[in-house]
Amino acid sequence: MSDKENGQGMSRRQFLTYTLMGTGAFMAAGILTPMLRFAVDPALKGTGDAGKVEVGKVDDFGPEYKLVKFKVKIKDGWHEEEAEKSAYIRNKDGKILALSPVCKHLGCQVQWNTSKDHPNHFYCPCHNGLYDENGINVPGTPPQAPLDEYEVEVKDGKILLSLTPKPRGGA
């Protein structure tokens, strides 16, 4: 008597069925794993207190804007680098304002109080862009939106800025 007649063993048809099902399951797992990883990965990323950078003491800033440069770590995939950023910061009547020095017209660097024709204004030398002392664009000049603003947090007498500035409503 053969093993097949005793109810033991496997027929050729059963072997092929199991082999094809196993191969199909392996291929499906190979296709679904990256998709599942893509969907779940954002939920697994850690959020830390790394979203702020210290730029100085509150007492270091007065009613006149001061340009401060600071470094932030940027991670792009596997590549990690340190980028230098800057902000104009002032402490006027206890209210701290931190503005990005990047013009909203074409991305040039604005300067504080350097235009003789427009004192106490941010001036962009690239295309004569103007912003008032609060970073609001002056109508009739090239910039179409105010300077971006950094989120400010005061902790133990030190000023912490967000890593990236946020856009504000336009004039």
UniProtKB/TrEMBL annotation:
Belongs to the Rieske iron-sulfur protein family. PROSITE patterns: RIESKE, TAT. This is Menaquinol:cytochrome c reductase iron-sulfur subunit. Keywords: 2Fe-2S, Disulfide bond, Electron transport, Iron, Iron-sulfur, Membrane, Metal-binding, Oxidoreductase, Transmembrane, Transmembrane helix, Transport. Pfam families: Rieske. Component of the menaquinol:cytochrome c reductase complex. The Rieske protein is a high potential 2Fe-2S protein. It comes from the Bacteria. The chain crosses the membrane at residues 15-36. CDD domains: Rieske. It comes from Calditerricola satsumensis. Signal peptide: none annotated. Residues 75-161 form the Rieske domain. The keyword Transmembrane applies.
